[in-house]
Write a sequence for this structure.
């Protein structure tokens, strides 16, 4: 079981057992991580995932609390996850992204003006080493938008922009639940930017393929869907 999933299960067990009831405040992060035998980063990711589905409520400067656990609250939030796991058509959007984005990235390595490359580096520099999910998603969207625009092809840029909405939920869920996803995203964005700046279209294409395919592969595992070659 992935470490983050293990952390989620341990927190859920505390709630199911009654140890943490509705409205209860979770122990301090360091104390809870030690008690459950988890790293603080794994615990943090588990808390993010459980807050997304309204099991936990993270209050900045106050602490993390179990919500009321009212059925309406949980069912409303769970519709996000249920829809996501039932709708494997999102894989088709990722397949198209895997075709288009590497091509756009290679074109950007040839055509993107130096000033826009500096702007792309500035976008990466804006992100904290340990960003919250909202900041990561916003930064990710802006990074991909700028790379697509850097291709110099307006039609291609519009097509890629149109793929943002259908794939956004999967990207959020991966960032919440996959161990190391945030660090991997930052590392791959940096490699893509470096390849564009070095005017290496083949390298830029390769890194973009790795980047998009990584999310697609994670999603296939989450949905239990085999790759196209295995169908």
């Amino acid at each position: 079981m992935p470490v983050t999933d293990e952390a989620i299960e341990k927190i859920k067990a505390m709630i199911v057992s009654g140890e943490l009831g509705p409205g209860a405040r979770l122990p301090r992060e360091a104390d809870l991580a030690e008690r459950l035998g988890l790293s603080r980063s794994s615990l943090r990711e588990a808390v993010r995932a459980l807050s997304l589905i309204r099991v936990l409520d993270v209050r900045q400067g106050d602490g993390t609390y179990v919500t009321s656990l009212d059925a309406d609250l949980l069912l409303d939030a769970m519709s996000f996850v249920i829809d996501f796991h039932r709708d494997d058509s999102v894989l088709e959007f990722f397949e198209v992204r895997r075709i288009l984005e590497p091509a756009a990235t290679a074109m950007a390595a040839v055509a993107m003006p130096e000033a826009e490359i500096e702007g792309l580096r500035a976008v990466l520099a804006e992100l904290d080493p340990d960003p919250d999910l909202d900041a990561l998603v916003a930064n990710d969207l802006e990074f991909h938008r700028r790379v697509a625009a850097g291709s110099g092809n307006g039609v291609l840029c519009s097509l890629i922009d149109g793929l943002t909405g259908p794939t956004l939920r999967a990207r959020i869920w991966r960032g919440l639940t996959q161990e190391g996803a945030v660090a991997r995203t930052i590392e791959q964005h940096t490699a893509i930017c470096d390849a564009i700046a070095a005017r290496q279209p083949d390298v830029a294409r390769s890194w973009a393929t790795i980047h998009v395919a990584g999310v697609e592969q994670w999603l296939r595992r989450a949905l239990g869907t085999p790759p196209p070659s295995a169908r």
Remarks:
- The domain at 87-230 is CATH 1.20.120.530 (Four Helix Bundle (Hemerythrin (Met), subunit A)).
- Strands lie at 56-59, 63-66.
